[in-house]
Amino acid sequence: MAVSDNRNPDNLTAAQITDEIMANLAPGVLTIPAAVFEIVRLQERGYHLVVNH
């Protein structure tokens, strides 16, 4: 889970985070690197990325 204060509570590496995102994509979804930057911009505005397991 990413939060707006830039903490990484799971202490995951960038590769582990990428693997988790790729493993949880909906069927047929294409990845676009620019989306990563949009997530950062949203987090700067107070939004949170929550991943349910």
Notes on the structure:
The protein has two helices and no strands. The protein is mainly α. It has one domain. The protein is globular, with a radius of gyration of 11 Å.
Question: How large is the share of residues in beta strands?
Answer: under 5%
**Helix/strand order:** HH
Number of strands: 0
- Helix and strand composition category: mainly alpha
CA gyration radius, whole angstroms: 11 Å
What's the topology here?
Layout lengths: L13 H10 L10 H11 L9
Can you give me a brief rundown of this structure?
By secondary structure, the protein is mainly α. The chain has one domain.
Task: Identify the notable features of this structure and list them briefly.
mainly alpha, 53 residues, 40% helix
